[in-house]
Design brief:
The protein is mainly beta. It has a single domain (44-149), classed as Beta Barrel (Lipocalin). Helices cover 8% and strands 39% of the residues. The protein contains 1 helix and 8 strands; from the N terminus they run αββββββββ. It has an 8-stranded antiparallel barrel with strand order 1-2-3-4-5-6-7-8. The longest helix has 12 residues, at 5-16. The radius of gyration is 27 Å and the shape is elongated.
Length: 150
């Protein structure tokens, strides 16, 4: 059986094309494969006044207590004032996609004797509880904190 030159060229062109039915498309969802549905939390659950308890470095007589007042700043990010027995700190940052995790930076004012700066993570556990951690710059491990709505 002889194959014409045109038929042979057509057969080679078809064979050289990738088989589209065998190629899978990109995974559904985000980079982790998690479905990107509507947010499951509510950023408004962070707003208000919270009673905080936190751990700290050795020798700080912790667990310590204070308050955290959270509002929305002019940029639309959350801003908190973390009041302790000493100089308080300001927290700023954004809420994650699911609106149940707030991350950002904290800093004491520069007029404090030894201002502390660092980063934090707070997770809303419903409308009445927060859990998370904070880590001052220059430290190797984070410290835990939790809050209940006042």
């Amino acid at each position: 059986m002889l194959i014409s030159r045109q038929a042979l060229v057509a057969l080679l062109l078809v064979a050289a094309q990738p088989l589209q039915a065998q190629l899978s498309g990109p995974p559904s969802g985000g980079p982790t494969g998690q479905f990107l549905g509507p947010p499951t939390g509510n950023a408004g659950d962070f707003l208000g006044v919270w009673t905080l308890t936190w751990s700290g470095p050795m020798g700080t007589n912790c667990p310590c207590r204070g308050t955290l007042t959270i509002s929305v700043n002019s940029n639309g990010d959350l801003q908190g004032i973390w009041k302790t027995n000493g100089t308080g700190a300001t927290l700023t940052g954004s809420v994650g996609y699911n609106q149940d995790v707030w991350t950002g930076r904290f800093a004491q004012p520069d007029d404090a004797d030894f201002p502390i700066r660092g980063h934090f993570r707070l997770e809303s556990r419903g409308a009445r509880n927060l859990t998370g951690s904070y880590q001052p710059d220059g430290t190797a491990i984070p410290f835990s904190w939790s809050g209940t709505r006042q």
